[in-house]
Design brief:
224 residues; 28% strand; alpha/beta; globular; single chain
Length: 224
């Protein structure tokens, strides 16, 4: 059975409170991310709720809900889920592994916001993870996946003076497009941006919108 691994879960369990302190209000410093999330809401429309997958302390789900969308969150870390529930008591957050979302029914969501959650999945398992996201989306549903651009794998054994063990996988945009196509998604838009100085890690970022096709529907438009 595939799993993201105990080290990812235990690492985020250990830093959940500090993570929330540093990143819980990050969208206030990232206007482009807010615009992209608004676009996701527009694309999903009336298809159903949007899942903040790899939700951390729930800042993405909270923004979506604040803009009128029905939103919820799923995270591998139980401590992150507890933190998200504490900070956002009106929203639903559950524990789950994006490689095997056993508690989530087929076609459960109209949209998925996967903000940097794919970065903890190694290349050998990315297509499998995206297959699982495809499964839980309704036909016509929209996935927004974001990631750091590159080919490296960065390892961190400490954050905020807390011992952890996390790998951060960077992906090239054409590479991720191939993963998405292999998982059955129809590609819509791909956008890149430079980092916000002082507000986040100094890497170029990619945002890809992909849709679970309706029968016979094919879309493939890449804009930068």
């Amino acid at each position: 059975m595939l799993s993201m691994g105990n080290s990812v879960q235990s690492s985020y369990d250990a830093i959940a409170d500090e993570y929330a302190k540093h990143y819980g209000d990050e969208l206030a410093r990232k206007p482009f991310d807010r615009k992209v999330l608004d676009w996701l809401i527009e694309k999903v429309g009336t298809l159903g709720s949007i899942c903040d997958l790899g939700c951390g302390p729930g800042q993405i789900a909270a923004y979506l809900a604040g803009r009128g969308a029905t939103a919820c969150g799923i995270d591998l870390s139980e401590e992150m889920v507890r933190t998200a529930r504490r900070l956002n008591p009106s929203l639903s957050f559950e524990q789950g592994d994006m490689l095997a979302l056993h508690k989530v029914a087929d076609a459960a969501f109209g949209g998925i916001a996967a903000f940097y959650s794919i970065i903890h999945v190694d290349r050998a398992h990315v297509t499998g993870a995206l297959h699982e996201l495809h499964r839980i989306l309704r036909p016509g549903g929209v996935l927004l996946v974001t990631f750091h651009i590159g080919s490296e794998v960065l390892h961190r054994d400490q954050m905020w003076e807390t011992p952890i063990s996390l790998d951060f996988n960077f992906y090239e945009r054409p590479e991720m497009r191939e993963f998405l196509s292999a998982a059955g998604f129809a590609l819509e838009e791909a956008i890149e941006r430079d980092p916000y100085p002082g507000a986040e890690y100094d890497s170029r970022r990619a945002y890809i919108f992909a849709r679970k096709p309706l029968a016979g529907l094919i879309m493939n438009r890449d804009s930068s």
